[in-house]
Amino acid sequence: MRWPLLFLVMLAAAPDTRAERALPDYRYFRALSIDLLGRPPTRDELAAFEQPGFDFDAWISTHLGGTGYAERLRRVYMDLLRLEVGPSFQFVPNPLVLRRQEVRGPDGPIYVYYRRGQRRVNPSTDGELCLTEDDTGQEFPNNAAPIGIAHEVSQAVLDARTVVVKPWWLYADYRGATPADRNAPDWARRFPGFQLAPGLLVEPDGKTPTTEVRVCREEAQAVETGAVYASGRTGGKKGEPPPAGRTTQPPGDSGFARANKGRAVSCLSGTGFQNSVECGCGIGLERCMPGAGFVNEPPAFLLPTHTPLGGDAPFESTPQPAGAWERLWWGEEAKHFLDKILLEDRDFRELLTSRSTVVNGPLAQFYRFFAGATCCGGAADLGYSDPTPLVEPGAIPEALVPEDTATWLPVADRGPYASGILTMPIFLTKYGSRRARAHVAYSAFLCRDFVADAVRLAPSTEPDLTKRPGCSSCHQTLEPMAAYFTRVMESDWTFLPADRFPMSHPLCSRPKGQPGACKTIYDPAFTTLRGGYASQPHAEAGPAGLAAELTGSPEFASCVAENVAQSLLGRALVPEDAAWKAELAKRFVAGGYRMRALVRAILASPRYRDANDRRQR
Amino acid sequence: MRRAQPSASRAPQVALVSRPPPSRAANLRAVLAGAAWLCAACGPARVIAPSPPSPLPPHHEQAIDTTPKQRPRMMPPEVYLRAYMMWFGGLAPLDVQARARGKQLFDAWDDYLAALGLPDYRLDLPRQTQTNSLMLAVFGRLGEALCVRAVEHDLHSPKTPLDQRVVFAFDPVAAPTAAQFAERFDVLHRGFLGYPARLAPADRTARYHALFDDVAHRHKGKNPLTPDETGWAAVCTALIQHPETGLY
Amino acid sequence: MQRRMALRLLGGGVAALAARRPLWAAAAAATGPAAEHDYFVFIHAAGGWDVTLWADPRNERKGLVEPASTDNTDVAGLARWKGVALDGDTDTFAPLAASDSKLVLGPGIGALYDLRDRLTVINGLAMNTVSHPDGTMFSATGRHLAGGRAPASSIDVAIANELGADQLLPAVAIQFPSAFVGEHLDRRVIPLRVSSAATVAKSLSRSTAYLDTADRAAITAVLTDEASALAGRSVFPETYERIASQQRAQPRLIGGELEKAFTQKALQDAYPSFDYKSRSQSAGALSAAFALEAIRRNVVRSVGFALGGLDTHNQNYKQHARTLQELFGVIANLIAVLDATPHPTRTGRKLADHTHILVFSEFCRTPQINLSGGRDHYPNNSALVISPRFRGGLAFGKTDPEQLLPADAKTFADGPRPIAPPDLLATFLSAFGVPPAPYLRDGEVVPELLR
């Protein structure tokens, strides 16, 4: 008991070197900590503050560039843009998802992985699991439990129809000749955030660790280009039962297949997957995502459900499907991109204009292998089957493996179509329609809104919304802005390049025999690309054009000043703030649109310092 | 002089800066001027040499703070959560959850996050910026879990070195006097509210000391914490939920 | 635009001076008797519903209208779908038109059709928006978003402010778009926003191993005193006064019956008639059970919750009718329980006579089917009221036959026009003796809707 007493005596006897600070100073320091560090001050920080030499300006300068500052500012724009998508947005294109069925092998139950819709030469299995009812004793309907009584599949059949692969999700060195870096406990340290759903780690017995996976042969193919396959089938009629042993009609030949039989097609596009028996999941199945089951969205990864403090500090993790994996990393890309601009105090306009981004392992895999899976639908009928990449493949850092969830590397140039967040998957999926994309950018970056307070919407056949009574008041502005996204598909990121998609397509002016794309990609009402009628120049300028328009507008700087000031002050700006806001905007522009100077000006202002009423009456 | 402008948030009651009343000299000049005019009107005209005006008496300049005022802001839920992890010793959220659980002190983070006011961007639900009674209930549950675990870590294990204590960075004394309590209360007050207790309203320390004594007395002979430890847990719980902890 | 909006906001803020009984009551048409013993349930059908499947049924191809049919709808399990030929092999539905009712409804109404004499359907609501957040806020508050923010309080908050500030939990919002706006509302009615009903119980539970009830009471006393002291010293005391008030409510909330009654298991056990495993409305069923329990215990005045899954832009439209059926099934169940439950404070009365339900969505869906097989957003809407103070078996308002756009409902003070959300909200408030003017900048009471 002597030592604590002695300590207190010494404490009492020591000269107090703390400066006499007033309560408003403490409050100010606490507010600055909350806004620049993201938390109240620690005991040590408070002690340093109380020292005589403490300098508020110097302290602000030190912390204007830290992760707490970046998070604080990022929150302003995330509250405005809300760049996360929930489970209602399903990203499960058939080319990507490897589901699995349990069958009886010679040595007991085994899993066989396959893709729904995978093309196979054998009409009994084309588009379905590569094992038939005769092989297994069972039928395997989509999204439902197998039907029938399982019998053993012979080794000969397994060898003929399937292969064994060491996949990327189990081996970080899957591209090597003999992969050995298998999923192990040290992965938690090496690849924090990468956790497979438990079902992917063990065999059907629930105990034996999975060291390799058995997959249908077609899925294991690794060529990047395949030949278009035309089976000669026309496809089943509606209502007609499938042939014996199948659960669905065998795929018929698409118009694209018939017109392009034998031609080369990219295996990185959905069109390749649908029309070539040679397109598979690539080396180590890297072009596909695993799924521990046969349902529509089988579990794949343990993912955080909430990350208010960032992806590296999850609050709960649950098994989620492959689509959730992508949604999570898309959102993280936008956050890291914004953080980079803030931490490096770059020109804030780059949020909209920059061609760079930052990626981690999952995003690198997405951009290399997954992004093309949604292409090309009806566009293939117009000869578009090799999608323009969202990020130039050569720009993606080679060093990243899909497990590198925590390693973020810059991509200096995504390519000529890239423009800040406007061309990131999270933005293009959160705001699926062209108008929604234009609307949110208009609101967030010009602080303006489309408010149709009291208009009459009378029935009208006028297709042009810039002229339609009741609609024109908003759409005169909105339509030309939406036109900037004419060449980006809705609810997707597929670009429609000008050399393949002229504003008006000659095939669509034919009276008969128009391809389906003339209704899906082109607008019959205007005979132009959908969305382009309001402004062809905007359509050609693309999202970069919108970025230029927004950042070139005089309201841009004022809006940034307003958004940031309002957030830091915790209140809406009022008319009395007008002059101050104008000064902030001017300073922001003069400082090269850099955020630090703006934030410093706000934090050092009497408005921030003296704002909260704490004074005694 | 500047005239204070009304803020949008409430009807202002702003006093104008008053003009000083006319000075006696000014009054006199007015009278003389009036008299001169009368005289001029009645008698023969004569030239009156103008005299330079006397300097006006100095006005009292009163600076008016025209910065718009606002109420204290609620600490954003992200900041509260980060502070919470910090007060728990810098643990990750899932580690905090694991440590806090036990004896029904805590469930899972998922149960509380929405009630704390976090936005949900996936569902476009905005963040909350005002407290409500359920939010305070959540603060209470989280605060109690933190404080009990902190007592167990800092005080219940006497060998935890002072510099490793997460919340109670002092050596407790049994049945502290007012001065002894004040010294230790100051440590907690700085930690949660960010300023020394001496700058708080004068009755605050006494109020918390009374709480300590009340709880300690009630827990004589009870487990698992000693009466004084329970008293400190209560003081901590009452400080972490203090309005000045959650507002700034 | 900014300055106009700012001025409107200022004007709206001043207009929202809500001393509980505002001075300009004479200017507002408060018609109904006060409703201090009544309860209110507000339901947001999230996503935008296809009104042609229930409130404004269409089963013919006309103009833009492509009706629900076996081509675009999965009719298996639709209890009220009676097929009639549309063309070729394709069937559409026969509208529900009973001889004892003037209401003509579509099959999506499901079990609620049995209660048609208690339904007030409002069609042709002019939305002037197709944005989810804007449509939601317009329906809930009568105002469009301004700068991304709600410029007025939502209907549940308005009701709680007038009629329920003394309740323990005046307004509870389970994923409901509540908005508390204005300086002069009673701070006690700031809505309790939770993500699920089960959260309420978990927030209220406390360990018994360390601190006990007396300790917590002492802590609450300290906190209340501190908050009150700070309020006494502040130029703007409202924040601290509000916190003091919220602290005073804690002992009634924590560690008592409410915590046990609001657990998921307790709610499911107490109200087993709900389908807690429903494909689309399992969370909504639990929310409805919470509403019932909270009303039965007389701890709330307004409960708002969401029933969802309606934003069907593509092939998922095939399930839209089924989702509607499940949604209305929850409401039908809710009413059935209210019918069988006595009022907590008025002897001899049943809750159904004193509970009022308003169901809205953010907009309706396009009359045409889009290229992906679904329906997109459309600036028309319908709403549903189930209240003893509203005329049952009534459909008010209409749309044009070819484009499903709002048509003139009646002649309002500003001339003939369609009904709009502010009118419905004004009518709702007025039905309970609440003058609309302090809460609604726009809107006119529609007496035709009221008994």
Quickly list its features.
heterotrimer; A: 617 residues; alpha+beta; 3-stranded mixed β-sheet; two-stranded antiparallel ribbon; 22 helices; 34% helix; globular; disordered N terminus; B: 248 residues; mainly alpha; 8 helices; 45% helix
CATH architecture of the largest domain in chain C: 3-Layer(aba) Sandwich
Could you spell the SSE succession of chain B in H and E letters? Answer: HHHHHHHH
Number of helices of chain C: 11
Order of helices and strands of chain C: HEEEEHHEEHHHHHHEHEEEEEEEEEH
Mean pLDDT of chain C: 90
- Strand fraction of chain B: under 5%
Large-scale geometry of chain B: extended
What do these coordinates show?
- With 617 residues, chain A is an alpha+beta fold.
- Helices cover 34% and strands 9% of the residues of chain A.
- Chain A has helices at 2-13, 23-36, 43-49, 56-63, 67-81, 133-136, 155-161, 187-190, 255-260, 270-275, 322-343, 350-353, 361-370, 425-430, 434-446, 472-482, 517-520, 536-552, 554-569, 578-590, 595-603, 606-609, and strands at 97-105, 108-114, 138-139, 147-148, 162-165, 213-216, 225-227, 264-266, 289-290, 299-304, 317-321, 357-359, 409-411, 522-523, 528-529.
- In chain A, the strands form seven sheets. Chain A has a three-stranded mixed sheet with strand order 2-1-9, with no helix packed on it. A two-stranded antiparallel ribbon of chain A has the order 3-4. A two-stranded antiparallel ribbon of chain A has the order 5-6.
- Chain B is mainly alpha-helical and 248 residues long.
- Chain B has a domain at 77-246.
- The model of chain B is unreliable at 1-22 (pLDDT under 50).
- Chain C has 451 residues and is α/β, with parallel strands linked by helices.
- Chain C has two domains: 24-204 and 256-449, Alkaline Phosphatase, subunit A; 207-251.
- Chain C has an eight-stranded mixed sheet, with helices on both faces. Chain C has a two-stranded antiparallel ribbon with strand order 2-3.
- Chains in contact: A-B, A-C, B-C.
- At the A-C interface, α15 of A face α1 of C.
